[in-house]
Design goal:
- This protein has 287 residues and is an alpha/beta fold.
- Helix content is 57%, strand content 8%.
- The protein has 14 helices and five strands.
- The longest helix is centred in the middle third of the chain and has 19 residues.
- It is elongated.
- The termini are far apart.
Length: 287
């Protein structure tokens, strides 16, 4: 954020009157400006859309979308819950909530498909398959993803530890024996969890392979990750959209299972017998 504001401040004297209006608005309302179209930003401050586009190029960006993306990347961990609610309200603008949210989730999956590093994905899967132990951590809303991943990995592997998060000290106690033959999977999205970051750093320092599932290569989780899996989430809403991250988790489960298909088939044959014997699932009889 400071870097972008420094650019704006350094160019302030060279801006036109209209561009200075844009600069002042961004400085005071960056949380809203980051999600406005060029047209809407121009209308808000009283200038033309072309003035907004020229403002972006004056700062050295290829166009307004690149300025907007830079602003979004830099502020994604700064928005409070109240700010997120305000921005979400502005973006909805009286539109149908169901359609808007579902279309946004579809777009996040498309963006994730375009941007996710296939090599990082394959390397992460290989590391998981060959790991002595697999540790998984996600807190707050990300705990749902960690739990889902842990549920299926426990069926695939016999060395999975989903970390409990009652206290910071307990996390490190659970990670006490992590080492070079192990894998740590850290999951966090804005606002990023300090507990997850600390656990990732500890695991990295102990020589474990560290995998990050997060929303951007600029995420602080990427600092300690050997493999970063980027899945887009909607940071503007006060409810975290984890549809795209869950799709990546699904893909990771499937890829890992294909890597040891014979063992997985044997495991599920045993499970089917157990499920039948102990009536785990409701049986639907044909009429």
């Amino acid at each position: 954020m400071n870097d972008l504001m420094s650019k704006i401040q350094a160019s302030l004297s060279e801006f036109s009157k209209g561009q200075r209006l844009i600069a002042h608005y961004i400085a005071e309302h960056y949380d809203k400006a980051a999600f406005m179209t060029a047209s809407r930003l121009g209308a808000t401050v009283g200038v033309s859309e072309s003035t907004v586009v020229r403002f972006a190029t004056e700062l050295g960006y290829d166009g307004y979308p690149h300025l907007q993306k830079a602003l979004q990347e830099m502020i994604r961990n700064r928005l409070t819950a109240v700010q997120r609610m305000e921005v979400a309200g502005d973006r909805m603008g009286g539109r149908d909530v169901l359609e808007t949210v579902l279309c946004s989730d579809v777009e996040k999956i498309r963006m994730t498909l375009d941007e996710l590093d296939r090599t990082a994905f394959q390397n992460a899967s290989d590391a998981i398959i060959h790991a002595r132990r697999i540790y998984i951590l996600g807190v707050r809303s990300s705990s749902a993803l960690a739990g889902f991943l842990g549920f299926y990995f426990t069926l695939l592997f016999d060395n999975v530890h989903v970390l409990c998060t009652n206290s910071v000290s307990e996390i490190f106690e659970q990670l006490l024996r992590i080492g070079a033959d192990d894998v740590f999977i850290g999951i966090s999205f804005p606002r990023y969890s300090q507990r997850t970051l600390s656990a990732m750093k500890y695991s990295h320092d102990r020589g474990a392979k560290v995998i990050a599932l997060t929303d951007s290569r600029l995420s602080p989780l990427a600092r300690y990750a050997d493999h970063t899996l980027v899945a887009k989430s909607d940071m503007a809403s006060f409810v975290d959209s984890l549809v795209a991250p869950l799709s990546v988790v699904n893909a990771l489960i499937v890829q890992s299972s294909l890597g040891r298909q014979r063992e997985v088939e044997s495991t599920f044959n045993q499970l089917e017998n157990i499920w039948d014997e102990y009536h785990i699932y409701e049986t639907i009889e044909d009429e």
